[in-house]
Amino acid sequence: MDLYQTSLENLQALTLNIKDEFFTYDLKNIPLLEGVNTLLNTIDAKGLKLTQKGFLPTKVVKSIVEVASTTADERFLKYQTRFYEEEHFSASLVRMVAEVLKLVRVQKGKLLLTKKGSQFLTLNKHQQYIILLNIMFGINLGYFDGHQEALCVHNSSLIMLQLLRDKSRDFRSVDVYSVILLESYPAVEDDIELLELYDYADKDQFEIYVSIAELRLFERLFLPLGLVEMQKAKTYMEDGKYAKSELLDHLIEEKNVINKELLFTKKTIKEFQDTIRTKNLEIDLFEETLFLFAQFADVPTPPADAVVESLMQKHAVIGTLRADYEKIYRQLIESVLTTYEEFTQLDTVGAKREDLVEEYMQMIDSFAVLVQTPKPFTTVQRLQIVPMFIFDILKLRYDIDYTQEDFILILKEKLDEEFAMDVGNLMLLLEQLQKDAKKLKKNKPNFLQGVKEFIQNYFMIVLELRSRSL
Known about the structure:
Blueprint: H1 3-13, H2 31-42, E1 48-49, H3 58-68, H4 74-77, H5 89-100, E2 104-107, E3 110-113, H6 115-122, H7 125-136, H8 151-155, H9 157-166, H10 174-184, H11 188-192, H12 205-222, E4 228-230, E5 242-244, H13 246-251, H14 266-278, H15 285-295, H16 304-312, H17 319-343, H18 356-371, H19 376-383, H20 386-398, H21 407-414, H22 417-439, H23 445-469
Antiparallel strand pairs: 1-3, 2-3, 4-5
Helix pairs in contact: 1-7, 2-3, 2-5, 9-10, 15-20, 16-17, 18-23, 19-22, 21-22, 22-23
């Protein structure tokens, strides 16, 4: 089996499934790819004569450094005018990769191109890249820095890469990525605690992990492969910041792709309404959906079966009709959880994507339309139950009773001022809507805007509760 096919299968075994679109993506300025090709193309039939100490000649090193240096190398390059292999990581890495892949071999003081090396040069860039990607996850990058072995860093490389893929292209420091990694995969912390402290002064194990991870994963694995971009070269006074590259988006799928069809939109809500109408189900879609958002804002999250059963207590039905109720409730729960997964990415779970705010506002608009009735007074009546969903969670989760005189003050002390203000604002908005509804016989733009603000405030609160519990 050829080197490319073997590499592709190895990556699949590591659950890195390469997207079809990668093979049509324009691969440009991939440092390691350019560097390896530069080295191999430098070797003619007679071979490349090495220095007396067995290093690449300075002319070749210079040509490799010019194409294979990463943003992280810039802090060193500007101080160097010599091009010795042992002084340039990019040249050392290129040679190591070529030798590990057996693309080259040393004989009598010369670097010779092997049969595999010749075959490598005949492959297209995408096939070459797959080979390099595969081998880089097996190379001991600790060889270049002399620090402790730190298997926890090496073993988290694939997890960290997937985490990067699932994030937006915002620039973050490695300590931020590492915190998210531990939140997503707590078991990694057990391995981090085994790190030794001897060569890191006053740092704790987490800081050691971050330090080694930045060097071995971000600077020496992800950057050479073009999988991340660096905002600017790291300095001794400022941390480096990294974001996934466009290439990474085209290379592998998100681990947990959000099913957009399940998000609450005008279309989704209409489909639920049509089902309720067609099957003659007595379901208040607005009230029961917002109830579900409150239920699943809490942790431990109640089992779906228990929530469905509590909702079914309102319906004395059996047989096929009962099955219809249970089915739509389970579909609603699935949409609620998917919507939470989408919009809590603004904080704890992950990063915002470009269209997230627009999706969020479309959802708010859809629920605002759903709750509206021809008469403002009836609309407000439907809204009055909504704060109770939050109050019940606050009572169960935080033992905070909304009937207490200093309710908002207690919220501020037990949670925080911003959350307390959101809850207080929800109550004030409802009070104002009640006053306006007494004066109005039909809907007015200001009243409908107030309804929208009330619903938006409700979702701000439940999303905050959900984020706190993750």
